[in-house]
Write a structure and sequence with these properties.
The structure holds 2 protein chains of 2 kinds. Chain A is of the alpha+beta class. Chain A is built from 6 helices and 5 strands, in the order αββαβββαααα. Chain A has a 5-stranded mixed β-sheet with strand order 2-1-5-3-4, sandwiched between helices. The radius of gyration of chain A is 18 Å and the shape is globular. Chain A starts with 9 loop residues before the first helix and ends with a helix. Chain B has 19 helices and 34 strands. Chain B is α+β, with helices and mostly antiparallel strands. Classes of the chains: A alpha+beta, B alpha+beta.
Chain lengths: 182, 796
């Protein structure tokens, strides 16, 4: 429960322990009042209305709810909202800039790395952490980095290709910007 | 001089067009059921039974009602006063919505709470006090059929035991005669384990009953929204035109989202009672232990063989464990689905199948999990039997199949159980597969490796399967015939909208249907929008499962396009001032036969339909097509897997997977390949790790993703796909056949045959799936068959 919800009845509000937290999500600073037991995934989906973060299993297995906290991919269904106090969150909605898709988004579309789309946001964010740490991953690196994210549609082969596509584009971009800058 | 359109450039047939739906999914702006929030919406949670079989002595919900924020607590007793404690299943049985007398499986719905917030609803569920009197639990057909077995369905009149049906098909006497003449008889017994389709998104619904209009709108995770509308009209006695079912984006279905579940019904009743929107979103355990499972069939069969390898007859007996309610989603005429499509790829003169269904204290379902109604079990048994029979005959695996294949010039071919297959190049597909895997070389490597104590194996699975129910003569669900529909509306500027009775769940209909229209009319695919899943706007259809979208709804899209083209031809004749007989068509354009330079585009015809139609012609340019296919489509597949088994641990690794799929004309090759890879992964999952079982008390093992193992990117092998062989479907308007399920249906046997081949020297005939290391180890160590039938052993 947080104050962001529609239906909190006033009569009982006094009985509910509330924590006030400050955090940044997709570059925007926020303050929220949350019940200590509120899951981060619920704060993101219901409190902030960012429904691109999906919930699949509730047990940290499927990875559909993966977001970045301070750049690290975590599963938001088993992190408490109060734990992000003072931290920075990135969700799928924060991947693209105003006019441009992130190369991972382009890669997933280009290489048919998604079908039903439910696991896709989590896959892309787990891949984002990988590419930040390892700009030239092998297929094996990618398979290992994504092994906490389940997909039932694609069989992963095209997801691996999508991440390789994005890595390639990111490397090209960084060379281009170095050349432009230098 | 006009330039003929390039069909690939406009995104027509054969274009690997990038998917339209991806634009929202990659941005996180899809619209799944749980993403929808309506003003004043309440939240529902379900209390489930912890026991598999127990009498309910009492339910006390007093404390739950007292929790602040709780609006309603529903129990079976309250449902019964509205005649909603039970509902019909898709197989003419009944299923408890909320339990009244007994609970009959672990996870059964007992009560539900509707509150301001899902956290409150969950808290309140925990305060409901249910007193149970435990009864013995039955977890397999043998227990169910025992003379002293408790009757699970004592709610039903005329149900003295746990048998649901006895059904048979084929020619018993003819089969017996053929067996008398056999040189050799091969026998195989196995259990196809219970599995769960387990899409990552669970089931859910938001029911929104509006008192002022009397209209009920339900947003829900349904693969078949029109069937749901019909079911709600019949069960809830709400007039059909006052029900609107909307399936928004669906996070995977695989058959799990076809049936009607108690949660849907409870959310609807709660919304009617409270006059507010009520959202129910299942958690993963709820999904795994209560919604549509698949398989769980015991198969026992024999094959009569001639010394030269010719199959003379097949005989099968199947025992299906249906759980507590017979809730299979399947055509009503066939009690064990299309099990009798088995051996369709082979020239088998005669056969006989006896099928029996039993109730047990397990979750109800029997859904077609990436499968056309038990075709998976049929093809698995077929290909495991082929493997065993080839060994019994001392014949090469590939050669034995080749000897018995239906030949290219034998079509149409009547299968031993009455299906009519119509096309294929079976031998050619096998050739492609053998060449790709390097068959002869591998057999040599296998012998070499054996000298060093290494176990290599190769498994083949070849099959054709019936995809795309109906026709309507033979296929219906609850009496509703299995056809499908499409509606095409071309706007005045030549842009268009297509709606169908199917419902995409990842298959990419929004991309593919536009390609069919582009092929038929020459309108660029990007000018066509596709909508599905809203029963107020989409034409009536039976939905998407059993690989029926392209065979049926896709055909309807082509036929609707042709109706539009026929009218556009009249408009073209009018515009060019010639008679209709003088008008010729090329992609996107009509022209005068004698003067090909004189022509009008389809877009010009569209404009004329609204601005310059001939006298007497009805304005507008749109059409509806209800397509009733003359036959099923019969894709063929050859899957070959090579493995290495570690003799010390029983662990096996995949070396290579080759898939040769002949699914006729491919509308979007990229999407088709995506479907094949998805199916192969599920095949690997079933062979390697994915299953549900039960202990002796009826506790479900596999109730969450820590116990119910799904392969990740790390375990999943790579795939080599081949599309060299293409045999168009002779009756489908664009020659396409179904493909979504082929690899999940035909694939498992290739993996199992490969492992059985690797440990062939042990003489073991069968290890039940999944081929867990301990099972394979046991087979190697003790040289005995290994059964995986529940109850799971206590030392596991």
């Amino acid at each position: 429960m947080t104050t962001v919800y529609d239906d909190l009845s006033d009569a009982e509000a006094g009985d509910v322990p509330v924590n006030r937290i400050k955090f940044t999500i997709n570059g925007k600073k926020k303050i929220a009042e949350v019940e200590p037991r509120l899951l981060l995934s619920h704060l993101i989906r219901r409190g902030l209305g960012l429904t691109g973060t999906h919930m699949g299993c509730d047990t940290t297995n499927c990875g559909a709810c993966t977001v970045l906290v301070d750049g690290r991919a975590i599963k938001s269904c088993t992190m408490l909202a109060v734990q992000v106090d003072g931290h920075e969150i990135t969700t799928v909605e924060g991947l693209a800039s105003a006019s441009e898709l992130h190369p991972l988004q382009e890669g997933f579309k280009e290489e048919h790395g998604l079908q039903c789309g439910f696991c896709t946001p989590g896959m892309m964010l787990a891949a984002k952490q990988l590419l930040a740490e390892n700009p030239s991953p092998t297929e094996e690196d990618i398979r290992w980095a994504l092994s906490g994210n389940l997909c039932r549609c694609t069989g992963y082969q095209n997801i691996v290709k999508s991440v390789l596509w994005a890595a390639d584009k990111l490397r090209t971009q960084s060379v281009d910007s170095t050349e432009a800058g230098g | 001089m006009s330039q003929a359109l390039d069909e690939i450039k406009i995104g027509g047939l054969g274009a690997s067009r990038r998917r339209v739906e991806d634009n929202r999914f990659i941005r996180g702006t899809g619209n799944y059921t749980d993403d929808i929030t309506l003003p004043g919406m309440l939240h529902m949670e379900i209390l489930r039974s912890p026991l598999a079989h127990a009498r309910i002595k009492s339910i006390d919900a007093t404390k739950a009602w007292e929790v602040p924020g709780v609006h309603l607590v529903l129990t079976g007793e309250m449902m019964a006063t509205r005649n909603l404690a039970w509902m019909p299943t898709l197989s003419y049985d009944t299923q408890a919505v909320l339990a009244t007398d007994k609970v009959r499986f672990q996870g059964q719905e007992v009560a539900c709470v509707i509150a301001d917030d899902p956290y409150i609803a969950k808290d309140a569920c925990e305060l409901i006090d249910v007193e149970y009197e435990p009864l013995p639990a039955i977890v397999n057909p043998t227990q169910a059929l025992a003379a002293d077995a408790p009757v699970i369905r004592d709610d039903k009149e005329n149900q003295p035991d746990n048998v649901i049906y006895n059904w048979e098909v084929g020619d018993r006497e003819g089969t017996d005669r053929a067996f008398e003449q056999a040189d050799k008889i091969s026998r195989l017994q196995l259990h196809y384990p219970r599995s769960h389709p387990s899409p990552i998104e669970c089931c859910g619904s938001i029911a929104d009953f509006n008192r002022s209009t009397s209209k009920l709108t339900v947003y829900m995770t349904s693969q078949a929204p029109h069937i749901i509308r019909a079911a709600v009209a019949l069960v809830a006695e709400i007039p059909e035109h006052m029900i609107r079912i909307i399936s928004p984006d669906i996070g995977g279905g695989f058959g799990n989202k076809v049936p009607v579940y108690p949660g849907y019904v409870c959310s609807i009743l709660a919304s009617i009672l409270l006059e507010r929107p009520v959202k129910w979103i299942e958690d993963k355990s709820g999904n795994l232990i209560s919604t549509g499972f698949a398989r769980d069939v015991y198969l026992d069969g024999e094959m009569a063989l001639r010394e030269d390898g010719k199959i003379l007859a097949v005989r099968m007996r199947t025992d299906a464990d249906h759980g507590a309610f017979f809730a299979d989603a399947q055509p009503s005429k066939f009690k064990i689905g299309l099990m009798h499509s088995t051996f369709a790829a082979y020239d088998v003169p005669v056969g006989h199948i006896m099928a029996r269904g039993t109730y047990t204290n397990k979750a109800p379902g029997g859904v077609a999990y990436r499968c056309s109604f038990r075709v998976t079990e049929a093809m698995f048994f077929q290909e495991r039997m082929m493997h065993a029979a080839a060994i019994d005959l001392g014949m090469d695996q590939a050669e034995f199949r080749r000897v018995n294949f239906v030949r290219d010039d034998d079509f149409p071919h009547r299968t031993p159980f009455g299906f009519l297959t119509d096309s294929g190049q079976y031998g050619e597909c096998l050739d492609v597969g053998l060449k790709a895997v390097g068959y002869e070389d591998f057999l040599q490597q296998k012998e070499e490796a054996k000298k060093n104590g290494r176990l290599l194996g190769l498994g083949i699975s070849t099959m054709t399967e019936p995809l795309g129910a109906g026709n309507s003569r033979e296929y219906d669900i609850l009496g509703i015939k299995m056809f499908d529909s499409a509606e095409l509306r071309v706007h005045m500027t030549g842009k268009a909208i297509v709606r169908t009775g199917a419902k995409t769940q990842g298959q990419g209909h929004e991309t593919t249907w536009a390609q069919i229209v582009a092929h038929e009319l020459g309108i660029p695919a990007e000018d066509i929008v596709v909508e599905e899943g809203d029963t107020d706007t989409a034409p009536f259809g039976m939905g998407t499962y059993a690989s029926r979208s392209t065979p049926v709804a896709g055909a309807a899209v082509a036929m609707a396009s042709r109706k539009v083209r026929a009218k556009a031809r009249k408009l073209a004749a009018h515009l060019m001032e010639v008679s209709e007989e003088d008008v010729e068509w090329e992609l996107g354009r009509f022209y005068v036969r004698s003067a090909p330079d004189r022509g009008v585009t389809i877009q010009e015809c569209a404009m004329a339909a609204y601005s310059n139609m001939p006298d007497g012609m009805e304005p507008g340019l749109e059409s509806v097509s209800y397509y009733d296919p003359p036959n099923l489509t019969w894709p063929f597949a050859c899957y070959i897997v090579t493995v290495e088994v570690d003799p010390e641990t029983g662990v096996w690794d995949v070396l290579n997977i080759v898939a040769v799929d002949d699914c006729g004309v491919r509308i979007n090759p990229m999407i088709v390949e995506g479907q094949i890879m998805g199916g192969l992964t599920e095949a690997y999952a079933m062979a390697n790790m994915q299953f549900q079982t039960y202990d002796a008390d009826g506790n479900c093992v596999g109730a969450n993703y820590m116990d119910y193992l799904l392969p990740t990117a790390w375990e999943t092998p790579g795939f080599e796909l081949h599309s060299e062989i293409m045999t168009p479907c002779p009756h489908h308007p664009i020659g396409a056949k179904g493909i979504g399920e082929c690899a999940a249906v035909g694939g498992p046997a290739a993996f199992v045959n490969a492992v059985m081949d690797a440990i062939g020297d042990t003489g073991v005939r069968n290890v039940d799936m999944p081929l867990l290391p301990d099972r394979v180890w046991e087979a190697i160590k003790y040289r005995r068959d290994v059964s995986g039938a529940p109850p799971v052993r206590s030392d596991d």
